[in-house]
Records
---
Amino acid sequence: MILWLISLSCLGHHRGGPSYDRCPVYPGSALLLDEVRMDGMLISVYETTQGDWSNRTASNPTPVSAGCGETKPVMGVDLDSAFNFANTVSSAYNLPHYYRKGRKGWTVDVDSSGFRYPTGDEWWRFTFAYSVPDMADSANICDFGNVSDQSRLSEGGVDSLYRRYDGDVRSLYAPCSDGVSGLAEVGSFTPTSSLVADSVGNADELIVEVVDGMPTPYTIGGAYWSRGDWSSVTSPKAFSASANRAGLRLIRRSD
């Protein structure tokens, strides 16, 4: 593993974006960028935390309702801010920017070694291609991700929300209870055998496909393991800046 620790002191407040109560800024947070090497990539072991984001942007867009914490994933990030964040981290390591902003919007430099977000295929590989067999065992599922599970059934409105889809509301939840209904601290769950943590469920994760040289965003991951499989987790979903629940995981080329 490659371990980088950088400590900066940042003060400020988030302005703009959706109107909801946001988590506090965590000034002076240590940026923990722990990476693993796989298939020519360096992949961040952890999702970008609220402390990481505070460190670099002096803001924290995460909704209070999702769960506040310096070592919990950042959420509620709009796409421009996500691309700028990746470029900011690239600059800190003297790497060229992968995302480029022009008059017609964002493009990418596919030859850049700078930080970026994974494609769906890359996300699948570091999440499942090298996973351990126990990951698919319902008895162990809460070990691997912050899935929606039996601990959520007592929350207000959950029963009525899901019962209209299925007569047995419990079939939509993992048959275990990790006691965490909101965001968990990064690294709380058993990593897959690629050593990447929390990808199957904590925050959803931003994936970016490149179409005709332009970055096209989706989200993947998920908050629940349903009907005995990961189908709800592995289906890409449209990215919506107005209702963004996606977390971030940085990757880059290893050469």
Note: The chain has six helices and ten strands.
---
Amino acid sequence: MSEFYLHEGNRYIVKNQKTMKIALGIFFIALGVWSLITNDYSKRGIIVCVILLAVAGLMFAALMTKMVFDLDKRTFSVQTGSGKPRFIQPLSNYAGLELIRQYRFFGLMRNSILNVVFNDGGKTVKMPIRQFGPGSKASQAMIEETEAFLGLRQREGA
């Protein structure tokens, strides 16, 4: 059982980070309601509430996004809630994985983002597939697992 992918036949679907998205959505809803109540239902309170509810809606809509490595079709695709792929790249354009580490506020906030990189007609196309928290060694494990099912790395001892 993979920590990062759902395995359906020859399709590898990147697992969503649902807890973070749901928590942020609830936070923005609560903040919008709080803003509405503390501003005594004024125009300013209503506008801020609507904006924060829209942001919460985007968080919940992001739960419907699927990123799929389809080894039968040899493609990587990003599907939205409608099920139609919005981003499709053949695996023949695959150039590798890129790990970006970000340090903010004098190193107090650290974050890592894993991108899948494609070379498409001389242009480099990057798509973020996962975020990792500070000090997480899971990013290396996900890179190794991705390279293993794409057949880019020979298994040790084989």
Note: The longest strand covers residues 109-120.
